[in-house]
Amino acid sequence: MGRLPGPALAGLVLIGCGTPVDEGPAAPIEVKAWATDQHASGGMLVIQTTHDAGLTVSLPSPEVEGLTFTDEGLTTESLGGRMVLTQRFRFTGKKGFYEVPPLVVSAGDVSGESRALWLDLGVQGPNADKLADIDDPGAVWTLPVGWICGGMSVAGLMTVGLGYGFVRVLRKPRKKPVRLVPPDVRCLRAWEAVRADTALSDDDKAKELSRIFREYVEEVLAFPAVSWTSTEILARLEGMQHLPAGNVPRAKKLLRATDLVKYAEVSPEADFFDDMDADLRAFVSSTRPRSWSPEGAGDA
Hints:
Layout: H1 6-16, E1 29-39, E2 42-52, E3 67-79, E4 82-93, E5 96-100, E6 104-107, E7 110-113, E8 117-121, H2 145-171, H3 183-196, H4 202-221, H5 230-238, H6 247-255, H7 257-262, H8 270-287
Antiparallel strand pairs: 1-2, 2-4, 3-4, 5-8, 6-7
Helix pairs in contact: 3-4, 3-8, 4-8, 5-6, 6-8
């Protein structure tokens, strides 16, 4: 394997260290498609279109040979000057593999399309993770005798240094371990601090409530709720079979708390935040981890 030039090697190092990549401005029309609630004979296909608010788009209707689609409705959401349209289609079919081709959304001369999607009904798809990686064997190289002697000397010095450092570590007093706070406790404490802060306006408190709720959901339910839209979060929650009943409506009110205050759909008086507080506590109480500690032991 040849050596990389200096600039190329530096570029690889920057990429490996996680240097952010500038993705540029969002496309005028973006289309995503995914399946939820899948079982042996069907499931739910979700098509989400995000586009500039000034566009009038033509939405797609999926057609796949062997599958029957039933329109389950369309939801619309405004997000930072862009519109988010979420379509849901219930699909049924016989056992087998089905490919949903890219779904095209157009508005005049502008268009966008989703990636192709595979649906597996009652069958197990191939596991690509089982494919063995092919390693390129390196050339055999004999270490010179002089290098061996030098390496042994360096290793001896390092051993003495490590031994000295180990003794110094043993002599230092041990610090008391820091006890971490469970996520449900941190969530409720953060919300209580926001409610008690008289310097925050009702709109600011509603924004903080939405942020605190998203951070809790991301940590406990293990999906990127902080960066997802409200529609994406609610779609994921609806697909969780073991999520306790009533939590999806609670999540909807908590995620849209800012809009409720901003557009005065609900009066931002004391009872408004009392209702939000009750919804947050009910959601946290029914989803908090059964046990939580750095080692996974102990009661929550």
